[in-house]
Amino acid sequence: MKQYSFKILCLIIWACITVFSAYSQTARIVSWDTKILESFNGDDDAKYTWKTQASRFIASKDIAGNDVQLPNLRYVEAWPLQEFGTPRGANAQVYRSLGMNAAFDRRGYNWIDLYPTMADDSEGKSFEIPMPGRVKSIDCWVWGANLKYYIEVFIRDYRGVVHTLKLGDISFPGWHNLRVELANNIPQERRLLPSYAGLKFIKFRIWTLPVERVDNFYIYFKQLRILTDVFEALFDGSDLADPDHVQDLWSN
């Protein structure tokens, strides 16, 4: 009996050593960093201009019956105090956020897309924002009016596959930081060199639910960010895995 127990103990120890050894060999160094993709501050030198596209029942008249073009976007002096604080003094920093005003003619699963374009693009084509590093999570400050709506984030991987992530419900009053973690099955690297294969941010999509009013509502956005691993392992000849460097070498 003692000999049998001793064999079991040896097997357990051997298994633990094997697992630890395998983990130590495959463990990857990481360097987490927070990157701001868009501040939503509406500065004159802003890189992106934001536009909208809505589903078929978007309203064309306001409550008073006047013709309107909805959704309406505007930068306003409003921001989450818990993140940026209260301005103090004459020269205090004043922030802005991107506000959206919209309405639909009927309840249902209505949607509004909020997407970026390059500020210097006169044609206003949609632009997919590159997300550096290997992204762990996406977050954004959102102001909600306790409406039963929710927001999705659309991203694209290096294969061209679009992934839809639920950023969160906005059935809350005031500013909240909405955050979603990326699943491990969203590829962000290749087996072959260059191994890094970054993601791109496509758009937000705001959904209304049939149980909620849609006659007139406001939503505000501030600071779209990612938590990302920016570490890249160096090896002998790693510069030859850089597409820009390779192009320079072969163009000369």
Tell me about this structure.
This protein has 252 residues and is α+β, with helices and mostly antiparallel strands. The chain has a single domain, classed as Jelly Rolls. The protein has 3 helices and 12 strands; from the N terminus they run αβββαβββββββββα. The strands form 2 sheets. Strands 1, 3, 4, 7, 10 and 12 form a 6-stranded antiparallel sheet that branches. Strands 2, 5, 6, 8, 9 and 11 form a 6-stranded antiparallel sheet that branches. β8 and β9 form a beta hairpin. The model is unreliable at 19-26 (pLDDT under 50).
Mean pLDDT: 88
The percentage helix is 10-25%
| Helix and strand run | HEEEHEEEEEEEEEH
CATH class: Mainly Beta
Keywords:
six-stranded antiparallel sheet, alpha+beta, single chain, about 250 residues, 3 helices
Write the layout of secondary structure elements.
Layout: H1 2-26, E1 32-38, E2 48-54, E3 72-76, H2 81-84, E4 97-102, E5 111-118, E6 129-131, E7 134-145, E8 149-156, E9 162-169, E10 173-181, E11 199-208, E12 217-229, H3 243-251
